[in-house]
Amino acid sequence: MFTGYGKCYRLDARELAEEHARNSQHWTCTTLQHFKAILDSPAFPCLFGRKAVAAGSCHVLFARAQDAANDIARGLADYIQALAFLPRKQRVGCPLLVFLETAAQTTLAEQQRLAWAILQKVHARDPHPWPQDVPRDPQDSQWSFCFAGMPLFINMSFPAHRQMKSRNLGSSIAFVINPRDSFDEVASAATESGQRIRARIRERVGHYNDGLIPQTLGFFGQDDNYEWQQYQLQEPGSLSPARCPFQAGTTAERQIEN
Q1: Could you tell me the pLDDT band of residue 186, with boundaries at 50, 70 and 90?
Q2: How buried is residue 195: exposed, middle or buried, by Cβ count under 10 Å (0-12/13-18/19+)?
Q3: Who's near 111: CB < 8 A, 6+ residues apart?
Q4: C-beta of residue 225 within 8 angstroms of C-beta of residue 219
Q5: Is the residue at 3 inside a domain?
Q6: Does the pLDDT at position 206 exceed 80?
Q7: Segment 126-179, tens digit of pLDDT
Q8: How far apart are CA 186 and CA 202, in angstroms?
Q9: Residues 6+ apart with CB under 8 A from 255
Q10: Half-sphere exposure of 171 toward its Cβ, with a 13 Å CA cutoff?
Q11: Which of 11, 8, 14 lies closest to 53 in space, CA to CA?
């Protein structure tokens, strides 16, 4: 029996290795092995992700299908607390990988709808107020999802992706979560080096996806860029919301929802 649901592990943690040594056929173990194999490929486009996995410095969280929001909220709070002790430059090498127990034979739209619903429920379990300097409306170019007072960027990856192969990390829905300011530290749109890094990664995305580069990939803060459209990428069969499915509630509203 796997006992680590809702726990934020470092990838190189001995405790995680021991859990999987006792549960080698469990979905958490096979999911992690598959994920590592994908990131081990030199062609995988995210250079920062490949480096973090190779170094074992990323964090891992597993969530049960029947209790996903509670598992994620608990582990995400621990992850954010751990980041408080890290210099800003080191945070980019320490993303949080959230793997959600995922039913087989579900469509891409079903998986995406579930991901947004879980994110909404995670928000409802956040006891901290929404940061005053971050807009609540996802249609604002300065918006980011926030938890425990920290703006975050969430890469949603789905096993049903076929064209957007760079957003398929195995047989489970996966959230790759980074502090919003990590990208500004290493790949800011305001610096030439940041622009070069982003251009290089997006070129690699195109190669990995057989020439397909998502049109919604932009730069944070630009007037025509909406972060939520980068959380979930589009291809035929995708959920196609006109507006962001996520809505930020007040603390009182979240208490009622929760």
Answers
A1: low
A2: middle
A3: 102, 158, 159, 160, 173
A4: yes
A5: no
A6: yes
A7: 999 999 999 999 999 899 999 999 999 999 999 999 999 999 999 999 999 999
A8: 15
A9: none
A10: 13
A11: 11
Tell me how far apart the alpha carbons of residues 222 and 142 are, in angstroms, rounded to a whole number.
8
Our count of domains for the chain comes to 1
Amino acid letter for position 141: S
Instruction: DSSP letter for 218, please.
Output: -
Nearest by Cα to 48 from 186, 217, 190: 186
Which of 123, 152, 147 minimizes the C-alpha distance to 220? 152
In a domain? residue 177: yes
Residue 258, pLDDT > 80, answer no
The answer to whether residue 156 is domain-embedded is yes
β partners of residue 61: 98
If pLDDT is split at 50, 70 and 90, which confidence band does 238 have?
Answer: very high
- Residue 252 belongs to some domain of the structure: no
Structural domain containing residue 75: 9-245
Contact present, 225 and 192 (Cβ < 8 Å): no
For residues 63 and 150, give the distance between their C-alpha atoms in angstroms, rounded to a whole number: 21
Query: Encoding tokens for residue 67?
Result: 């209790």
Per-position DSSP letters for 75-99, written without gaps between them: HHHHHHHHHTTS-HHHHTT--EEEE
Secondary structure letter of residue 66 according to DSSP: G
The residue ranking higher by pLDDT, 91 or 94, is 94
